[in-house]
Each structure stands twice: as C-alpha cells, then as structure tokens.
Amino acid sequence: MIVSIFNQKGGVGKTTSVVNLSVALVKEGKKVLVIDMDPQANTTTGLGVDKEGDSVYDLFNEILDGKNEKEENEELEENEEDKKTIPEDKKRIDFSKYIKETESGVLLINSESSLSGLEVELVNLDPVSRTEVLKEIIGKLEEEYDFILIDCPPSLGLLSINALVASDSIIIPIQTEYYALEGVSELMNTYKLVKDSLNKDLEIEGVLLTMFDKRTNLSYEVVEEVKSYFKNKVFKTMIPRNVRLAEAPSYGKSVLEYEERSKGATAYKMLAQELIGE
Length: 278
Known about the structure:
By secondary structure, the protein is of the alpha/beta class. The chain has helices at about 15-25, 40-45, 55-75, 120, 135-140, 160-165, 185-195, 215-230, 245, 255-260, 265-275, and strands spanning about 1-5, 30-35, 100, 105-110, 145-150, 170-175, 205-210, 235-240.
C-alpha cells in the first residue's frame, strides 16, 4: 500500500504522523519504506537519519538523467549508422545507496534542502512526465514493502502532485483547533484534479484528527465539524496533545521508542492497527 500523508497547511501533525505511524507499522510486523518529499526534511531527522549523503533529490536527478539519455539515444537511433552504438539500458539504478536503515526498523529515502529546487527542474519535462517521476521510482520498489509512506511538503506544487500520482491513497491530518478546515476545499480540489486526470485510482484512506485536547470544548466542536464534512472517512483514532510526542523529535526518535507507554504512542499504535484493518 502506497500512502501519501498530505495537507498543504503546516503545523497539522503531518510529519509527526509519518514518523510515528511508520514505526507503529513496523512494530506490527510490516516492512515499511518512508519517502521524505519535504525539503524541510523533518521526517528524516525525526527518524534519526542525517540529511547528508544521497537523498531523494539525487534519486530524482538520476531518473531525470536517464530520461535525457534515453531521448538522446532515440534521436541517434534515427540514424542507421549510429544505431549499433546505442545500448538498450545504459545503467540500472542502485537503490541501496538511497535507502537508509533506521534504528526503529523503518527504511527511509531521506530528504534535504536541495529538494526545494526540484520543481524548477521538473518543469522542463512534458506535462505528464513531470508528475510521474516518483511513480516510476516507486514502481521499481513497491513489491518489496507492505507500506510505502510519503511525507508531502506543505504546498500544492509538483512535489506533492508527484506523491499523489504515485499513491494508492492519502491520509489527511487535520488539527482539532480553530480554522481546522481552512484550506481543505483547496486541498480537496487538488485531490479531485489528480484523481480525475492523473490517478483515477487515488482514494482517501482517511482523515486523521490531531492535537486533540479533551479538556476543551473547541476540540469536540472541530471533531464534529470535520466528521460532518468528511463523513465516514474520518479515522476512529484521534491523536492527542501529548508532551512526549513533542519531545521525541529532538532525540531523533519516534514517540514509540522515546516513551512507548505515553498516550501519543498508544494512539499511533491504534492508528496502525486501524490502517491494517485489525
């Protein structure tokens, strides 16, 4: 299953959910790959991985270089004299240098700040190809994993579009705070556009309510508002406000490793089980 965690708003618990859900799925016995598509690379550091070295940006560039070589080869093949000099496949991608092992057991293709410039490079491709690079990458990997989770950037640009085109479904984290549904209509328009024109099989896996504070009436009001909007697409599991959840990233750990008995850890275990269908 390939799932993008997607919301163009920042501060909704997107990265927190990618990190902790991936670790919770591993603890359920699943083989999990995380792809960090956010140039801020918070998922990368949250899983305890250094941002240095080969990243998803380098992997994209290797794919794009291969596309350029293929186009050049096709042009040369039009000349019969040059035809014999063109190999069928000049090189294969070594994914092992891009996939990092983490202490939690999650496998990661990390991000770094250079990724922010990738959208400019993707614009040079044709309108369809520029949206399908990540799909091509995942197509070579998906059989090896039970789950591939993609952390999308907090924007609606080509990086997010690539993630949506490559995914089977999306999880939408929404904080149970004021203005919770702000921007949701724009997000849904993007989802519908991708589903209608680029990935007809894309579904909403579920809406994840985050930062729930049972002490406030506002949290309960937002829950009802979100359920009214998304109906049965809202996960039963809600992620509470929790000090341990906030502390864990500074140690490069998920909350399940940092404090497994905390309310935050328990919630993500329940979410993993709900996603698996247990």
